[in-house]
Amino acid sequence: MQLLYYYILTVVLVAGMLLIRNRATVNVLTGLFLAGQMGLCVVSWMNKGSDVLSYFTFDALAVLFLTLLTLLSITTVIHGFVNLKDNTTRRYQQYHAALAGLIASITGATLANNLTVVWVFVEATTLTASVLIYHEKNKLTLEAVWKYIFVCSTGIAIAYFGILFLGLGMQGNARFDLSFSAMSELVTRVNPLYLKIAFLFVLVGYSTKMELFPMHTAGVDANSVAQPQIGAFISTAMVNLGFVSFFRVYRMLYHTSIFSWMNHILLIVGLLSVLTAAGYMLKARHVKRMLAYSTLENMGIMAIALGTGDNGYYAAILILVVHSLIKSGLFYQLSQLFRTLHTYMLKETGNYFILNPPGALVLLSGTLLILAIPPSGLFLPEFLTFLSLAESGNWLVLILLLFFLCFVVYAFATRMMHVLFSNPVEDHPEPVMVRPYILELAVQWIMFAAAILLCFYQPPFLQQLMKEAVQMF
Amino acid sequence: MMEVLVILFAFTLFYLSMAERFRVYAALIGLQGLILFGLSIFELREINLANLIFIVTETLVFKAILVPFLLYRIIKRTGVLRVHPKTMPGFYTLLMAIGALVISTLLSSVLEGKAMERLTITAALFALITGIILIITHRRIFSHMIGFLVIENAVFLFSLAVGSKTPYLVNIGVLLDIVVSVLILGVFVGRIGARFNDLETESLTDLRH
Predict the structure, then answer these.
(1) A252 contacts A162 by C-beta, under 8 angstroms
(2) pLDDT tens digit string along A168-177?
(3) Is pLDDT at A428 greater than 80 in this prediction?
(4) Rounded to whole angstroms, how far apart are CA atoms A282 and A270?
(5) How high is the ipTM of this complex?
(6) How far apart are CA B102 and CA A317, in angstroms?
(7) How confident is the prediction for chain B on average, in pLDDT?
(8) In a domain, A308, yes or no
(9) In 3-state terms, chain A is what percent helix, strand and coil (to 5)?
(10) Which residue has the higher pLDDT, B166 or A442?
């Protein structure tokens, strides 16, 4: 019932944000929305393991990612308040209404316990995210939003094809319904060919949201033109949503005969993602695109972790959690970088350490953390993934992965070092020494500190939740 | 009668592969909408009246009338009448369409089910591959949009094959059609056409850095 109240509250608040032309009121309404989001999060913890409104569930997977989403929502809203100071009131209203809509859509998809309900909410995320991507209303954002809508919609249509294939395979069953729990019992009796086709369609479809090969392009373009805090949100919360939607289908097919075949596909897709990321990072000219390709690389490693089977599930979840903390912190810092350098083009940037030492320190730390260099929290799950690959005898995958990662580390580190310490290569807009907002820096450091802490110590409740989240039916 | 409609739908796909004028594209998309309307009536007689009205309204009003109308409006507004001269010649795309039909037939032949169901699935898969071919081989954004609409029709046709026993799925498929097509056409009509004059994919490459 609380979920229903949450959605009623969201509708009322979003309507208020759109109708009342007053920034202070919009701020208050956004704060109220966040309070509602936190309230729902608390309710999900209190009712862990129960179903709500027939089509939703508070299972461990949902609770974990709802908590992460709530955290990312708060930090994104805080950075939005800072970055949108110069916007007109109308744009300010549209931005916050769309952001609340996006958060509510992701919440729905995360909690959904039914294939079609997931699909409806995923579609809603495309709509609301497109408003945020088009926020600047220029030619570049128009290009990005067109590609985003086009690729995501095609991807979701393809995913729906997969769902229909599952429906086709289950037609003989009298108690046919599309809830994950009911379907996991029925799929074992379905022709494996149908399951394979369905899995491929669903993987390709949801790869638009997961920023995974082959449909990663939409997310990369969106990240590069959207406001940094929205880039952070798309790169983390949206990617996590893609994972949850996909993982529920994967878990449903766990006991079927195609399980090992699925894992092979995931290994291939993961490797291709890391390879693509490495290739593009080597020729990247835009700082935000670098971060977007880094997301592709991390999701590739996550897919490989999943593909190694039981040993890799925990690593996959941990990658997503830590990646969300580090990547969002890095994206948030880019707004300070832009206020100082007035450009995101790599050749025009440089000397950031001189111009903004506190911000540069965040960028440097974030670079080391996202490259999984200890004490980064990413080190542990990546190491577990390598170990899992070795234990499962996938030596070729392990060697290729390590080989591709060398290029990723080289490309990312050299370009970030250039931004921090070198002189700009090309003519650039006159940099301005700006005083960074303490709140911004504090949020970024807290996120990095949490990512470092997870390398040494994972609180028992979190460890338990993550283990439950990857438990198969 | 249903067999005839499905085969007619497949013919529109062949014609789409060869066509070079955008007006023909718009007309064929409208014709596909009419065919889907006919199929909905024949296929979904078992389900309740509300569902039937919902689906019929969607196919007839939306797919057969509104979408072609918006397409004609885009053609008029942008003044771009033909596919790009450098687009792959119609003969080769026709060959690819034949290949797509062969693949679809082979794929559906290994699936279980009644003959009519398999025929519908063949047509749906054929439409899916044709839509992808249109997007890959053409240079103008308008053709890409047509490719997407063909994929949407493929999803709808497929949901008809599955849907007689699971009407819930059909409604969701319909919802997908409405939301996404309106959104894409809306962006196209409202923004893209006005900003990018030549409507070629080359003009949408500023983000490749």
Answers:
(1) no
(2) 777 655 555 6
(3) no
(4) 19
(5) 0.82
(6) 42
(7) 77
(8) yes
(9) 80, 0, 20
(10) A442
Dihedral pair phi/psi, residue B46, rounded to 5°: -70, -30
φ/ψ region of A173 (left if φ > 0, alpha if ψ in -120 to 50, else beta) reads beta
- Collapsed DSSP state (helix, strand, coil) of residue A29: helix
Spatial separation of the C-alpha atoms in residues A212 and A265, rounded to whole Å: 13
CA B141 to each of CA A422, B24, B84, B201: distance values in angstroms, whole numbers, following the listed order = 41, 16, 10, 6
- Higher-confidence residue: B77 or A449? A449
Domain boundaries, chain B: 2-204
A286 secondary structure, DSSP code: B
Q: Which residues contact A406 (CB under 8 A, 6 or more apart)?
A: none
Q: Is the peptide bond before B68 cis (omega within 30 degrees of 0)?
A: no
SS3 B66: helix
Domain count, chain A: 1
- Is A59 within the bounds of a domain? no
Q: Treating both helix axes as pointing N-terminal to C-terminal, what angle do B49-56 and B22-43 enclose, rounded to 10 degrees? A: 170
Q: Calculate mean pLDDT across residues A135-145.
A: 83
Q: Which of B112, B141, B176 sits opposite A191 (nearest CB)?
A: B112
Q: Determine contact, residues B70/B25, Cβ cutoff 8 Å.
A: no
Q: What does the DSSP assignment read for A55-83?
A: TEE--HHHHHHHHHHHHHHHHHHHHHHHH
Nearest CB among B112, B192, B209 relative to A285 is that of: B209
With the CA atoms of A363, A369, A374 and A375 taken in that order, what torsion angle do they form, in degrees rounded to the nearest 10? 80
Q: Does residue B89 have a cis bond before it (omega within 30 degrees)?
A: no
Give how far B33 is from chain A: nearest CA, Å: 17
Quote the tokens at residue A397.
């995958």
Is residue B80 predicted with pLDDT exceeding 80?
Answer: no
Tell me how far apart the alpha carbons of residues A295 and A289 are, in angstroms, rounded to a whole number.
Answer: 10
- How far B162 CA lies from chain A's nearest CA (Å)? 5
Residue B55, both tokens: 């689906």
The pair of three-digit structure tokens given for residue A23, joined into one six-digit string? 């920034």
Q: What's the rounded Cα separation, in Å, for the pair A6 and B54?
A: 29
Domain annotation covers residue A226: no
Range of the domain at A348: 270-473
Alpha-carbon gap, residue A92 to A182, rounded angstroms: 44
Inter-chain touch A119–B172, beta carbons under 8 Å: yes
Q: Which tokens is A398 given?
A: 């392990």
Q: What percent of chain B has pLDDT over 70?
A: 72
- Number of A/B CB contacts below 8 angstroms equals 101
Q: Three-state DSSP class for A408?
A: helix
Residue in the block written with tokens 């309106």: B182
B166 to A123: CB separation less than 8 angstroms, yes or no? no
Would residue A171 count as lying in a domain?
no
CA distance A186 to A236: 33
Mean pLDDT computed over A350-356: 88
Cα separation, B76 vs B22, whole angstroms: 10
